Batch of 4 targets.
Target 1
Amino acid sequence: MKLSKKLFSLIFIGSISISCIAQNPITVGEVTAKPGEKISGYIIVPAGRDSDIVKVPITVINGIKAGPTLALVAGVHGYEYPPVLAMTKLSQQLDPVSISGKVIIVHVANVPSFLKRTVYYNPYDWKNFNRVFPGKIDGTNSERIAFQITKEVIDQCDYLIDNHCGDGNEDLMQYLYYTEIGNPEVDNRSKQLAINFNLKVIVHETNRTKDVINSLYVSNTALLRGKPAISIEAGKLGGTAEEDINAIMKGSYNILKHLKMIAGEPKLDFQSVWVQEFKIITSEHEAGLYYPIVSRGDHVQKGELVGYLTDYFGNNLQEVKSPFDGIVLYIIATPPMSYGEPMVMIGRF
């Protein structure tokens, strides 16, 4: 019996050693993970004229077997909490011994916004962090963070999932974005990511910028560098509902299984429906109070009033009507409204 146990141990250790030969160490920011290791640490963003250094928390999981590198990003908008909580749980659960390939988890990408609890914008430069990629090494705070994430995470991964939810002001239903860029191989692989993540609604986008040096969005930056990517929306109004955290967790495990990075097959609970057209209606006025009439997930008809904007004294400024028969993907549910900000997003199948 003792001999059998020793023999089993030698075989097991030997199999790990052989597997590790196919894997290399990976360094992301200050973190270096060897095969079979899970290490947490930071990407250090240098100080600039507008702020001190920023420490972006990450976990790097280097499996014992060869495979792709998957980047899972959360906290691009600091008031979006379910993705952050899901990535924390995921980083605790994933075991490098059971993984083929590497996983890079960005726990909170936009740390300044997260710590200051700001909606949309970075509190140092008031830029929307998901509109400044690939960033600048000597730019503003947002641009410097974006540059480091592009260099350390996006450029090192093979696939990327950018996890979002409704910001503190957004009443949002669960859906995800599949962005088609005109590269058949990348588009097909991204489409498979979208299907296997398995949210009920997939929004099909075709009109995002194709400018590599001004890619704007996290997922678009990956796509234009030849890395399949999707963007997730699960959560609303700055909440921390378990159903949203669980949806992100389940989807992440589905992607790991789809990419053969862990054992098993993706669990597809339903066939997603595809939104082929959508419209985001924005404010035409400098400032005002917004009153939503409908809620996320509501079905609306063309011309139906879905919200309206008044000035501070209650005088009507703008009526918001549905441009077509469709479904409310999200609607702003809090009063503050500035020029150019979104009021509602309506999609049709």
Note: Residues 1-21 have pLDDT under 50 and may be disordered.
Target 2
Amino acid sequence: MIRHSISVRNLIEFVYSAGDIDNRYTSVLRAKDGIVAHQYVQKGYGAGAKAEVSVSYTDVFDDVELILSGRIDGLFIDTDNKVTIDEIKSTSKDIIELEAPADIHLLQVKFYAFMYAYENSVEQISVMITYINPLDKTTKIFNFTYDIPKLQKEVIDVILLYLDYLRKINFIKQNKDESINNLSFPFTFRKGQRNIVKNVYKTLTENKNLFLHAPTGSGKTLSVLFPSLKYIAGKDVKIFYLSSKGTQKNAAAEAVSILANNGLCVKTVIIDAKEKVCPNDKVSCNPEDCEYARGYYDKIKEIIYKLLQSNDMITREVLAAYAEEHKVCPFELSLDISLFCDIIICDY
């Protein structure tokens, strides 16, 4: 049985994203401004409304147990128990010119509506998509009402598309758990290493935090990575190794390679900053200025499959080679492939 967790947004964007990378419709300030814009809309909801409501949905589809998660921007329940869910989207476009919501935005709120209805036994539900321009705070709202059976069919159809791809990826990774279970520590334990391994594993199983201070050359990386791998066997979780220096990322990659030479079969990606991996002289992520942005989303699924099929350690050099061969952005490729990797080594 495959057990897989993913957010609604990540699932929908992976299945339905198409066309080019184009940052001309976003900005550096968008994330910060988007938060402020969301809060501006939410403050106007009035008494009784709820903001940032978590929802989840778990179901078994043949050999896959899927755990979906998401967060509703706004939830309204009136005196007649009519439920309305709001999804807020910030945009730099002229609000007046918007004639309909983007399909991907509407699908996202449909998922949230179905998940809420499933959890709360609601037979009919209304949704609204609120577009807001963060600069002038102008808004436009689109409203829809759905019967749950019809909504459920649409949601399940999208899920099945994603699961078809997931099964292909999982076939490539089928030896992961067995290789972890059979893995032994590759060296004779140095002084203190065995104690570190035990405490890291204990901390993970108890869902606590561990602060470790040890000198250079004491084997910290392997002592932390080895029990972390033992912990993730049979679980749908990832290991994130965060570093502030490139040399520390190299040390983590070397530790994974040592374990791989001892039988470990996992997928690892090293993520570097966009400015460091961009093949152009100037970072300009749009199809007019960058050939690696053109048609990126039309090509990426097949590239991810091929890359995972041929590589366990996905380094900057591996990403650059695939990016050059297929004319796709190496930075975005590293982010997208991380969804299917077991170890992610990156900056913090």
Note: The chain has twelve helices and ten strands.
Target 3
Amino acid sequence: HTVLLVQVENESGSLGSVRDFSPAAEKLFQSQVPGDLVQALHRHTGTWKEVFGADADEAFAAYAVAHYINQIAVAGKAEFPLPLYVNNWLKYKPDAIPGVNYPSGGPTYNMLDVWKATAPAIDMIGPDIYTDDSDAYRETLKQFHRADNPTWVPETGMDESFGKLFFYALGEGAIGFSPFGIDYTGWTIQDEKPPAQHAENYALIGPMDREIARLNFEGKLKTAVEEEGAAQSSLDFGKWQATVAFGFPQFDGGQKAPGTKDHHGRALVAQLSADEFLVTGTDARIKFQPASKENAHMQILRAEEGRYDNRNWKFLRLWNGDETDFGLNFTHQGKVVRVKLGTY
């Protein structure tokens, strides 16, 4: 059996109290903050209150929880060095109270530095995101996408409104995206039918997941997601720009994109070489044009529909004429196209 990752603890921290107030804990709280933590955070030495101020209680709890979990991780890796991660119950609002609105001491965005310094045996920390508000979702992805922490969504909503958010995660370099309760246990899914948009996403990306991962790692992949009142967006690839318009019909490309009724349109464009791109999406038209008008006019030299098989591109058919004249159109058929561009 293949084990990719191990979750060491689930949504760690404490509810009901911001920290441990026992005599032993209180003695430590009044003492100096451990030197290795102070050094890692580039702070001046002092007590927890002197170093962390208003966040002292939560930082003290985060250090204790992270230190304990790191000990478990170290012991586990000594037996078999698999990648290890922890997830967290989010601090959704800046004024949320630790221990009341979310578990205190967990690896929330405001405690990431403490966790990273204290639990080096944990390879990554992922947010459990249960809001389908696009702005909040994107902000959370950015908070956890750091040079020392790859983007990874260990839990997220299963409803259809979360389907398009997978493309935001891909655009932020995510290496994983896991809707919660996807199993056919009768608890979350009653009819053994998977959520349509999540299933559609995985059917589209799954066969080429290794290529998508590589292109994302190399910084060559971008995504576009439809939002209410924003049925069109642009992706910048240096000399080339891709315009993504959501919803159909669009006919000759001269009219405004109509969008979709529930704003579910999504698209992915990845640069394979200077003038070649991998393109796919759902209810989206993608049209390329030179970024500078000095580069004359764009011409599609070749548009291949195909699929990846064991990391090898398998050509299926050429797109021509009406299929390419006004852009590349993607509905719900799971099509993938490699397009070669030129100018004249």
Note: Residues 66 and 119 are 6 Å apart (CA to CA).
Target 4
Amino acid sequence: MQQFDYIIVGQGIAGSLLGYQLLKADRRVLILNDESIPTSSAVAGGIFNPITGKNLDKTWLADSIFPYFKDFYLSLENETHCHFYHETNLYRPYANEQQRRHFLQLTDEYDLDTYIRLVKPDAYKEVENHLGGLFTTSAGWVDVPLMIGVLRKLFIQSNAYHNERFDYQALEISEEKVIYKNFQASKIIFCEGYYASQNPYFNWLPFNPAKGETLIATMQTYSIKEIVNQGAWIIPLGNQQYRFGSTYVWNQLDWQTTKESKETITSKIDKFLKTPYQITEQQAGIRPTTKDRRPFMGNHPAYPNVYVFNGLGTKGVSLAPYFAEHMLYFLEKEKDLMPESNIQRFYSLYSL
């Protein structure tokens, strides 16, 4: 029987970065991942943005998280010789005069100078911006599928990866260890994203999954390097390719693309994009969002060596590096998790 310190189930962004942190800590890790099923990480837009929403809300823990993940991703790029971190910044053209006044009032009221500066009218010819807009620094995107693919190669080279669908019935749990088929470990950590809804150990957690769709387009005469966001967003992918997004649907949780979502996205894009484009691809995923918009981290209330690291939702690329380290310290040094992320806050929902 093969011996490990940790078994991780799932190799999305949560499982990938936690597995990487544990390997860096010289722990024996086995990642079990089913490559045959669709995942949100495989189609994620990967946007990180410190200031979001109609009220210019600062992202939770932005002042701590953003410097951390920038250093983390740049270090990982250097180690893997792969470029997947793109700090492009983000431009929000005002949609109308009412929004312009609202945003200017918010920038006066709140201390946002670290992240925001004003842009004069008609700064870009490819999009409608006759009223000007806001430029957000420290924003950009991570090529999540590329990063996960690179980390998978690293895990395979480290003999830390196995491609298979996890069978919950084959898991044996005792006080000292867990056994899964021919693998034995001290602890098991479930990082399954949306598929946690099928996990008998953690399906009681209050997930609020949201389906999202994006489009891949080509444009020949578009030269804006920043992400542009006005109700819908445009991410420059390189080689005249762009990602348009995205939708949020809570009542139809499947992996199928729809005509309705395509029309929703293009109708919003058409309101501000002046440049001709051609749609070449459409993708769908299910985000593992939570009802309180905070991660799910910690150990099972009845099985102390069974853990979860999930619920990173729409801000996965921002949260995952920071909280993977927190999870590492929790597992290895028994350091307390943040109460906002610890699943102890929902233990009352669990029943034997």
Note: The chain has two domains: 2-43+145-205+292-349, 90-137+210-287.
